[in-house]
Design a protein that fits this description.
Among the domains are: about 90 residues; about 250 residues, Alpha/Beta hydrolase fold, catalytic domain (Rossmann fold, 3-Layer(aba) Sandwich), CATH 3.40.50. It has an eight-stranded mixed sheet, with helices on both faces. About 20% of the residues lie in helices and about 35% in strands. The longest helix has 19 residues. It has twelve helices and 35 strands.
Length: about 650
């Protein structure tokens, strides 16, 4: 739903869209699914006079994300800042009415979020007065490089002072120190002032409204969560003991700093939100969901406590934390107008007079509106994936079924919009972390081609607490596959799909699962696609990514174990001879998440078994392809491959 909004006085589109192919009646062009968001991550200045937004600009065969500034309300271009090749703005925030601080990252593949490098930059809205604040190139780019030297470490934005003064607090970790530090930085002079140091690496600091640090969240050497608390009397940090299966993760403080809001897990169950008294420890639940975690927080115009939180399982719904807050009433009104979507108030002025509302759903990649509270008026700022018509997209139905051992499993079933005489073929798409209700490009592309799509949040997925997530440990080739198979059989039993025509397709872990399913269930699946996949589990224990990092190694061993025989038994490359289904392998040579050795070993094993796969390999691509031509080719090959083995839906 994009334009129905009776609440407001007027709606108009005010940012231009890139020219693109228009969808003719009938089949939706691949270009509509491949073309990424032209605009994303909007941030409005505290006084409402400037807008920072990332704009994807065509450069050669790809689009390059650039931080772009517009004046408000007239939307005149003020400046565009492009980072070096493959460098991108991961996130950014206003530290004053005219100045932005930016977390820098690098692209690692279209199927992986950009990876933060730990470098922090700052700039004015006109692109001037750029400052390099933290990173491994201090001596080359910072005015304080000779003073501090290069930072061989990582920094994240920890806090902003309640009174905006162009300062920011950074949480930092130097690679050669087993500790984390919190600094106050002047984003104009790049001068730092040490606030505190906690004796654990990779810590995330939680700061009170009086700008004093109180909590730090980190992990021990086994990558088990730890909560540290700062004691004013002793001026020391200490680890807070927590009961087995319990975890407290502070997020924000009340205005007087006497209470704090936190995610709380007990008995390894789903996380809920609690408010706890800092002095007495008295705790009360303010938001919980019987089906899973309470997840994302929405602050709207509040700079103290969030006004709402959203559930994480099925279709998300808001839980209001501050019922009397004016932003809650506004959110309720907007949500009523967009009843088939979720509304997030993502950026506001300090006085709450203007705000950006992000409206998105299972069928709509999203629309951002600029809302003026005084005039009760909204302008449609931009549309995500503007080639997509939500009315042509399929509904994503939340589903629940019981696994063979009785465990409740959730997921989503996407059925094609166009009904035919035959039941549609089914494509199972195993995920990597957690499938959500929101728009899914792969599912919608396949549904537009007439396929039904099943996505299962098997045990080991996020969203339902530690016990559910941990139940997937060392079950990659076991109960996780059981859950996927049980989901497929449950779906077939509902009578809406053709159980004689089914394939599996996944990316990363999903590629692993798809190939394992093809080997384990040769009578169930006609074909399998592995994109950027992991196929040789012993490699995960020896790859460069985890060398020298005890926490990474501990986590990997928890996930897959270290029993050589078991790892071999759970590796698709060792079961090539059992695969009868057609196989398509897609991989990039610069993939760091799933190095190319995995794909070549899988390919060679299938060839040795006399069952050579279809193969699409691009040496310069990473964990998912970036170049528009290559992304288009991926979908072309998927369409042809599924048509070959499942037949084109009629």
């Amino acid at each position: 739903m994009r334009l129905k909004m009776p609440l407001v006085l007027a709606i108009s589109a005010i940012l231009p869209a890139l020219a693109q192919a228009q969808a003719a009646p009938g089949l939706i062009p691949i270009d509509s699914f491949v073309r990424e968001d032209q605009y994303y991550n909007p941030r409005m200045s505290p006084d409402g006079k400037h807008l920072a937004v990332t704009v994807r600009t065509p450069v050669g065969k790809r689009t390059v994300p650039m931080v772009t500034f517009y004046s408000l309300p007239d939307l005149k271009l003020e400046s565009t800042v492009r980072m070096p090749l493959f460098s991108v703005p991961v996130d950014y925030h206003w530290v004053g009415n005219t100045r932005l601080v930016v977390e820098k990252g690098i692209e690692v593949g279209s199927r992986e979020a950009p990876q933060a490098t730990g470098e922090i930059l700052a700039m004015d809205f006109d692109g001037k007065h750029q400052a390099y604040l933290f990173g491994y190139e201090m001596t080359g780019y910072s005015t304080q490089g000779s003073r501090y030297g290069n930072d061989w470490g990582f920094a994240t934005i920890a806090n902003f002072p309640q009174v905006r003064n162009d300062h920011v607090q950074l949480g930092t970790y130097q690679w050669d120190h087993d500790a984390s530090s919190l600094y106050d930085l002047d984003t104009r002079s790049a001068i730092r002032k040490l606030i505190t140091t906690v004796p654990t690496p990779y810590a995330s600091f939680v700061v009170q409204n009086d700008d004093k640090p109180r909590f730090a969240m980190g992990t021990d050497e086994h990558n088990v969560s730890q909560l540290w608390r700062y004691d004013d009397a002793s001026a020391k940090w200490s680890v807070q003991e927590q009961a087995i299966g319990s975890r407290l993760s502070p997020a924000a403080f009340s205005a007087d700093d006497k209470e704090f809001l936190a995610w709380y897990t007990e008995h390894s169950g789903p996380s809920k939100l609690v408010r706890q008294n800092l002095a007495t420890g008295e705790r009360r639940v303010v938001a919980e969901d019987a089906n899973g975690n309470v997840g994302a927080l929405m602050y709207a115009s509040s700079r103290i406590l969030p006004v709402a939180a959203f559930t994480a399982v099925g279709r998300p719904h808001p839980i209001y934390l501050e019922p009397g807050h004016p932003d809650v009433e506004l959110h309720k009104a907007l949500s009523a107008q967009f009843s088939d979507a979720t509304v997030h108030l993502v950026s506001t002025t300090d006085d709450g007079s203007k705000m950006l509302a992000y409206v998105h759903s299972d069928r709509d990649p999203g629309v951002v509106y600029l809302y003026d509270r005084k005039n009760n008026k909204a302008d449609q700022l931009y549309i995500s994936m503007s080639g997509i018509d939500p009315e042509q997209m399929a509904f994503r139905r939340p589903v629940t079924f019981k696994a063979r051992d009785g465990l409740r499993i959730d997921g989503f079933l996407t059925l094609p919009n166009v009904k035919t005489a035959q039941k549609p073929p089914l494509i199972l798409i195993p995920h990597g972390v957690q499938d959500t209700w929101y728009f899914d490009t792969d599912a919608q592309f396949l549904a537009s081609r007439g396929y039904a799509v099943l996505q299962v949040n098997y045990r080991g997925s996020s969203g339902r607490g530690d016990h559910f997530r941990n139940s997937g440990h060392r079950q990659w080739g076991g109960k996780i596959l059981d859950d996927l198979v049980d989901g497929v059989k449950w779906t077939v039993a509902q009578g809406e799909v053709d159980g004689s025509r089914m394939c599996a397709y996944g990316v990363s872990f999903g590629a692993y699962a798809s190939l394992m399913l093809a080997a384990r269930e040769p009578e169930l699946f006609k074909c399998a696609v592995g994109y950027a996949g992991i196929y040789e589990l012993p490699l995960l224990l020896s790859e460069d990514a985890g060398k020298g990092d005890s926490r990474y190694q501990a986590e990997i061993k928890r996930f897959i174990g270290e029993d050589v025989a078991e790892l071999a038994r759970f590796s698709p490359s060792k079961h090539a001879a059992e695969i009868k289904a057609g196989v398509l392998l897609i991989h990039g040579g610069h993939d760091k998440r799933a190095p190319k050795e995995h794909a070549f070993l899988m390919k060679e094993a299938l060839e040795k078994a006399g069952h050579a796969p279809e193969w699409y390999y691009v040496d310069y691509e990473g964990h998912g392809f970036y170049d528009t031509e290559n992304q288009t080719e991926v979908y072309k090959r998927l369409e042809a491959f599924f048509g070959k083995y499942l037949g084109k839906p009629k």
